[in-house]
Design goal:
The chain is an alpha/beta fold. It is 28% helix and 16% strand. The strands form seven sheets. Strands 1, 2, 10, 11, 12, 13 and 24 form a seven-stranded mixed β-sheet that branches. The radius of gyration is 24 Å and the shape is globular. Keywords: FAD, Flavoprotein.
Length: 659
């Protein structure tokens, strides 16, 4: 470790220190020293509950330098790749981090995790309110859609994490699973074993719930992912919740309790640990980096999956390492794609798996015609409603101090965060909200409302002003009118888009065509969402804080006016899923079977958000980690059935027992 790295580590809080560079061996992969015990293969089916060492309850001690971890990394042995491992995981995002942890728990197998981005150890990542500075930065893939017909030819900006932890490391950390009916729908669509009873154990396996009085039937305190209540609630957020009650909306104390309806408003739970962002990298990967059988290589861009055409068997991957050198690595057992809903279908197509006509167009040899690859793309469109707060209230009451603190110019907020894990820097920005039905006849809630205690641009991402890049609009509070924003999100969209190749070059981004609002039901839902937000803002509780409506503006009152505003300003709520959906073997539109195996290809799985048949009503992070938890057990079960010479039909029975 060079002197500059050592010096930096002396001043950075421990949660910032996730991984440090380790010299590469001849094969291009770093090595990490073994620093903790391992469990055998037979123990893996017991699902290694995920218990890990946690800092003491004192926030200051939780933020002191983890000298032992740093020493273990610095003294790591520098083994080179042998050219062959048991499991190759492509993508170090939410699913990839879970898989790396769970699969490497078996000391008898070797696991290689390849991530195209970096380590993801920036201070801004761990600070919850640092989220705006991540968008448009060097740890963001900065995807842009093709011009959208229904959005007046606008291109949609999709922030996607380019680092260990993936997009979850640059999200607003909200922890929502959807409701039981979402998974009943999955099973009805051919995802056998993925109903509510089949997924709940894996949600719980992932979760380390810190809140008291949570129903143990739906929550767990033994998983690796820290889920907690907000450590600080903005005073204006409390006004919002009072206004919701005034508008006749019920309170919901637990959006993830499937014994009650999802409807209602409340404060959101977040994936934080003592005020710091808990990403899949910090929760799952950091505690196990010392395992000798786990190798993590960053800045590794995978070109394609290597497939034996005769047997249609995945045998490895070809990738370019950070030095620009091409590396081929063989997989003795399986290749697992966990690159997300935009990159995974692209990689399948580059490997010769996809729609025959598209592959022919780019001169890619067709190994397996699977027309569903890249189809069924889903995302949650969102729209903003902002109000300016009148003087004299903003200067002495609820909002202006908050703005000053969140710019980082108030040293008190910095000290409160570093030493107490508290204060405004712990805010996820959208601190409260809930789920509602745009029409009482809806089977499930089709809208999520979020409250943001400051004014936002109508299209916050694409403006690269408020939420993106930390531009002048974010850092210069003199340009920001004091006020508040309500965001309306379509949680269960009916529109479907697709991902397609732009070229046969893996370095070219794929074409992303979300087709937002193609189903007019989504547009109608968004119009109703604006009306509901206006109803909340009109309540007496907001009287002293509510000034002029900035966006969309009181002059836009008809449905046609609101539809035009939506087309001009709607943006992503960052829940991109579904482009390699799972389904029954005889479903031509499905890409993977319920065991997440790519149809007609041996030893190749997709385990990430792209396999979701539909988008659960909430955020995509928790369901993605659930999929990876369950996917890891599916991998283990197949390995056990093969080693024990059990028939394949026994795999499903073993899964039932283990669940």
């Amino acid at each position: 470790m060079d002197q500059s790295t050592t010096k930096a580590m002396d001043v950075v809080p421990p949660a910032m220190i996730m991984f440090v560079p380790i010299a590469n061996g001849s094969g291009g992969a770093g090595a990490l020293r073994h620093s903790r015990g391992k469990v055998g293969h037979s123990a893996c089916l017991a699902a290694t509950s995920g218990r890990r060492h946690r800092p003491s309850s004192g926030s200051h001690s939780a933020r002191r330098l983890d000298v032992r971890m740093a020493a273990a990394l610095e003294q790591g042995t520098h083994r080179s790749l042998t050219g062959e491992v048991d499991y190759v995981i492509v993508g170090g995002g939410a699913a990839g981090c879970v898989l790396a942890n769970r699969l490497s728990a078996d000391k008898n197998v070797s696991v290689l995790l390849l991530e195209a981005g970096g380590k993801g150890d920036s201070f801004k990542i761990s600070v919850p309110l640092g989220f705006p500075y991540l968008c448009g930065s060097d740890i963001d893939w900065k995807y842009l859609s093709e011009p959208e017909e229904e959005l007046h030819e606008r291109r949609v900006y999709f922030p996607r994490g380019k680092m260990l932890g993936g997009s979850h490391s640059m999200s607003v950390m909200l922890y929502h699973r959807g409701e039981a009916a979402d998974y009943e729908q999955w099973e009805a669509m051919g995802a056998e074993g993925w109903g509510p009873d089949g997924v709940l154990p894996f949600f719980k396996k992932s979760e380390h719930q810190h809140a008291k009085d949570m129903d143990s039937a739906f929550h767990s305190k033994s998983g690796p992912l820290s889920v907690s209540d907000l450590r600080r609630v903005n005073p204006l957020t409390k006004v919002f919740l009072e206004a919701c009650e005034g508008a006749g909306m019920p309170r919901n104390e637990d959006f993830n309790n499937w014994n009650s309806r999802q409807d209602g408003m409340g404060t959101f739970q977040v994936t934080q640990r003592e005020g710091m962002r808990e990403s899949p990298a910090t929760a799952y990967l950091r505690p196990v980096v010392g395992r000798r059988n786990l190798r993590v290589e960053t800045h590794a861009s995978v070109e394609k999956v290597l497939i034996d055409e005769g047997s249609k068997t995945a045998v490895g991957v070809s990738y370019v390492n950070k030095d620009g050198r091409k590396v081929k690595i063989q997989a003795r057992k399986e290749v697992i794609l966990a690159a997300g809903s935009l990159a995974t279908p692209q990689l399948l197509m580059l490997s010769g798996i996809g729609d025959r006509h598209m592959l022919d167009e780019f001169g890619i040899p067709v190994i397996q015609h699977l027309p569903g690859v890249g189809q069924n793309l889903q995302d949650q469109p969102a729209v903003m409603l902002s109000y300016q707060s009148p003087n004299p209230y903003v200067d002495k009451n609820k909002t202006q101090t908050y703005y000053t603190e969140r710019t980082g110019k108030d040293i008190r907020s910095i000290l409160s965060y570093l030493f107490l894990g508290n204060g405004p820097l712990t805010s996820p920005m959208c601190e409260a909200g809930g789920f509602v039905r745009s029409d009482p006849s809806q089977r499930s809630c089709d809208l999520q409302l979020r409250f943001i205690p400051f004014v936002s641009e109508p299209d916050p991402y694409h403006s690269l002003g408020d939420f993106a890049t930390g531009g002048e609009y974010l850092t210069n509070k003199s340009n920001r009118p004091a006020g508040f924003t309500l965001q309306s999100v379509v949680t269960r969209p009916k529109s479907r888009g697709y991902v397609a190749l732009r070229s046969a070059d893996f370095r070219d981004r794929p074409m992303v065509v979300p087709r937002w609002l193609e189903d007019k039901a989504d547009l109608k839902t968004m119009v109703e969402g604006i009306k509901l937000c206006r109803k909340i803002a009109s309540q007496s509780q907001f009287a002293q804080f509510r000034g002029d409506e900035l966006y969309p503006g009181p002059q836009l009152s008809s449905d046609a006016d609101l539809e035009s505003y939506i087309r001009e300003s709607c943006h992503t709520a960052n829940a991109v899923v579904g482009s390699c959906r799972m389904g029954a073997l005889d479903d031509d539109s499905a890409v993977v079977d319920p065991s997440l195996r790519v149809k007609h290809i041996k030893n190749l799985r997709v385990i990430d958000s792209s396999v979701m048949p539909t988008l659960p009503g909430g955020q995509a992070g928790a369901p993605t980690m659930m999929i990876a938890e369950k996917g890891a057990e599916l991998v283990f079960i197949l390995a056990l059935s093969e080693s024990a010479h059990l028939p394949l039909d026994a795999v499903g029975k073993m899964l039932v027992i283990c669940s």
